[in-house]
Design goal:
Elements (H helix, E strand, L loop, with lengths): L2 H24 L4 H30 L4 E4 L3 H19 L5 H14 L5 H4 E3 L2 H28 L1
Antiparallel strand pairs: 1-2
Protein name: Rubrerythrin diiron-binding domain-containing protein
Organism: Candidatus Saccharicenans subterraneus
Length: 152
């Protein structure tokens, strides 16, 4: 499986997580919590867009990339976990605190699904751009934890 396929799967995962944040925002008990969850959803969509840009760059300059560092199985596992969580939310089987706890687990587990750790990058400036994404996911974990404390 090529690097392009790995990146496409990572984009799918980011989009699923964005959708989960958006649904969680609709369940928020306050406008502040809802706004924060909507912001997180937007940031996940931004991550997907950056991955798309990386995929386009990879198509034009494959020499800037090395080997995939994440397996197809690991990505499929993340996608399945996100799809399962999304289904439970849509079926109203989870309350917001449970959703946030699940999101914390997902963000923590799949923090490395960003281009700088997803695939080996040879180009230093491109590498720095995508390293920022992992920092944002660490920030997401902190923000989710604060939101969870706020609503409990």
């Amino acid at each position: 499986m090529g690097i392009s396929t790995i990146i496409i799967m990572a984009i799918d995962l980011e989009n699923l997580v964005a959708e989960i944040y958006q649904l969680a925002a609709e369940l928020a008990p306050s406008e502040n919590v809802s706004r924060e969850l909507v912001r997180l959803a937007g940031e996940e969509r931004d991550h997907a867009n950056l991955l798309r840009a990386g995929r386009n760059y990879q198509a034009r300059a494959p020499e800037a990339f090395g080997q995939a560092r994440v397996s197809k199985e690991e990505l499929l596992e993340g996608i399945k976990a996100a799809q399962d969580l999304l289904a439970r939310i849509e079926n109203k089987k989870l309350l917001l605190p449970q959703i946030l706890e699940e999101l914390i687990r997902l963000e923590d587990r799949f923090e490395k699904i960003h281009l700088h750790t997803l695939v080996e990058i040879q180009d230093e400036s491109l590498k720095k751009l995508f390293q920022r994404l992992a920092g944002e996911d660490r920030d997401h974990l902190n923000r989710l934890t604060r939101l969870l404390e706020l609503i409990k």
